[in-house]
Amino acid sequence: MRASRQSGSTSSKNTLKPGMNMWSVFMLGFGTVIGVGWITVMGSWLSDGGALGSIIAFVLGGAIMLAIGLCYAELATIHPVVGGEVVYTYDMFGAGAAYATGWLLVFSYVAVVAFEAISVGWVLEALWPSLKGPVLYEVFGYEMSLGALLSGLVVMAVIMTVHIWGVRSTVSFQNMVVIFLLVVTVFFVGCGLLWGDVDNLEPLFPKEKSWSTGVMAVLVTTPFWYMGFNVIPQSLGELEDETKARLVPRVIIFTIVLSMLFYGLVILTAALAAPRDHLLSYDLPIVGVFEAVFESPLIAKFILLAGLAGLISTWNAMLYAAVRVLYTLGRARLIPASLSTLSLRTRAPVVAILFCVVTATLIMLLGRNAIIPIVTTSSITLTAVLFMVVMGLPRLSALHAHNTRSYRMPFGRIVQPLAAIAAFLLLAISVYTPYQIATMALPLEWTILLAWCGLGALFWMVSASLRATLSNDERRAILLHNQRGDDA
């Protein structure tokens, strides 16, 4: 069975084509995490938390994600298949939990795709101001220009095409943009540390609020910015050599630790570059300050190209993850089976790709001022999934206690409860914070969340006959065993 798998041949027409190695898995996860947020929303971080407060928030958020990541590492070695959290929660709690998990994950991932689509117009307009063009409409106080809209649509079409070509083109594309991003980031950090001024770090915390409030304001968004390590388990069913799945714990841990270092350095670099008030006066603080300091528009454009590479790497990986969730739900008949339909030539889940692209495009039309509500709502849905998965780990470990697996979490009896508590607190904070700062009775984030959950509940009720087309044993076989091309 393994020999035929590694030769690239599968006899099932409804299984994904292998095309990943562990380097591709790492680049998929790490490229998702580092993204473009450090360019587009650095001003919000420094305004809300201050230089030191923002760094503390990302260290705390990273530590929480590391504990959760250790739980994911053990789960991934129990079920190294496509679907990640959907498969884990199915084995833990059944079909209802798997559906709820998948539904929340789809929003988390598609919201990020929309965020990147919005950001690409922002970055390209900064690179080429003449691209802006006429204003088409106004939404949430933001004027959507023709250039911003076309930029998002064109890049969306390019990435969609890459995914339709198959997993090999997806990972090759990812490797290329992440390597470019890392090269520019090293240049950016090096310049900031060499020519920055320590006096610019003041104030270390925001003057307008307490240090703890500032840290919490940034901390609540960190699940969104660290989103990426949980993309790694989604890819394990497409490994060319399935024995390499034993390395996934190292990849998850390394991804989170390296991301913590990345975020700490870019926040420090930005804060060193200029006084905070000067920094916050720019639409894109990092770009504006570096252009002013070095008196070189070329350097500013270089950083913007890094931002463009970062948002494309996250965009690419998030679309990949969203599509795999939909594919898994479709195969299990928890949503219409058409969403698991594969291209006969490339074995790409074309219907799921089109669904994600259309949904993300509709969200993109809400414009730039919808970014923060999108980020916060996505953080809520993601932390809800993280909490559910981490809480169920002891149950899943007990169910598979006698199975041989390559990894068991160190100090699991301590780390798992701490990770569960941290995930719960993070969930509570992410839900409460929009209410705390809202200017209306019902925060926009809550409205979005309730609408998405209500729509999901409606789909669940009307799809009872669809779920009945598979027995529990058949669904279990599809989710837990037969996603790796072995089901013929």
Please outline the helices and strands:
Elements: H1 2-6, H2 22-34, H3 37-40, H4 42-78, H5 85-93, H6 95-127, E1 135-139, E2 142-145, H7 146-165, H8 167-195, H9 211-219, H10 222-226, H11 248-273, H12 276-280, H13 285-294, H14 297-331, H15 350-364, H16 371-399, H17 412-437, H18 444-462, H19 464-467, H20 472-480
Helix pairs in contact: 2-8, 2-11, 2-14, 4-9, 4-11, 4-16, 4-17, 5-6, 5-16, 6-7, 6-14, 6-15, 6-16, 6-18, 7-8, 7-14, 7-15, 8-11, 8-14, 13-14, 14-15, 16-17, 16-18
Describe the structure.
With 488 residues, this protein is mostly helical. The chain has helices at 2-6, 22-34, 37-40, 42-78, 85-93, 95-127, 146-165, 167-195, 211-219, 222-226, 248-273, 276-280, 285-294, 297-331, 350-364, 371-399, 412-437, 444-462, 464-467, 472-480; strands at 135-139, 142-145. It has a two-stranded antiparallel sheet. Strand 1 (135-139) and strand 2 (142-145) form a beta hairpin. It is globular.
